[in-house]
Write a structure and sequence with these properties.
Bound molecules: fe (iii) ion
Shape: globular
Number of helices: 11
Distance between the termini: 52 Å
Order of helices and strands: HHHHHEEHHHHEEHH
Structural class: alpha/beta
Radius of gyration: 19 Å
Number of domains: 2
Strand content: 5-15%
CATH superfamily of the largest domain: Nitrile hydratase alpha /Thiocyanate hydrolase gamma
């Protein structure tokens, strides 16, 4: 069989599978697009960590990242959003404000930069509680913030995604970008860990 014919046949089969999954309510078209996009882009929290490390060492990049994250991550070769454009916003932690992300409606998440989302992110408990009692939820993750640190919760939508820019840990002045990136965990990019 020629390549073109088998490609067309596979496309039809994939399309049929997509339709069945959507009809049975197992996935939405958007979620499927997102998963395919994430797969094609090599979705991994290592991507988000690389963005963070660059922002830690390059002040001008940090400014661009906080101003227009879609363009800034594209500089490092990362696309945000697949078929549907999504606005990426990076929110920076400071000594006074800690950020955490959630999708209260479903499970929107910047897959390409953070990798597949953890099951707790999609859980009803996390989605409802992190908005009502963020300090208690973060404490359960082992992140005990001083009362002087305010917590801002960012609720994702189908059009917007968030990623947290954690604080650079103390005592890392001599580290290069790759070593810094290795310090950044997926949970820090969500905001449920400090680093
Ligand atoms: Fe969602």
């Amino acid at each position: 069989m020629s390549g073109t014919h088998s490609d067309a046949r596979i496309s039809r089969q994939v399309r049929r599978l997509e339709t069945l999954l959507e009809e049975r309510g197992l996935v939405t078209g958007g979620a499927l697009d997102e998963a395919i996009d994430a797969f094609l882009n090599g979705a991994s929290p290592a991507n988000g960590a690389r963005v963070v490390a660059r922002a830690w060492v390059d002040e001008a990049f940090r400014t661009r990242l906080l101003d227009d994250a879609n363009s800034a991550v594209a500089e490092l070769g990362y696309a945000s959003g697949g078929v549907q454009p999504q606005r990426l916003r990076v929110v920076a932690n400071t000594d006074r404000v800690h950020n955490v992300i959630v999708c209260t409606l479903c499970s929107c998440y910047p897959l390409g930069l953070l990798g597949p989302s953890p099951s707790w992110y999609k859980s009803e408990a996390y989605r409802s509680r992190v908005v009502r009692e963020p300090r208690a939820v973060l404490a359960e993750f082992g992140l005990n913030l001083p009362d002087s640190t305010a917590i801002t919760v960012w609720d994702s939508t189908s059009e917007s995604r968030y990623m947290v820019l954690p604080l650079r840990p103390a005592g890392t002045k001599g580290l290069d970008e790759a070593a810094l990136a290795a310090l950044v965990s997926r949970n820090a990019l969500i905001g449920t860990a400090a680093q």
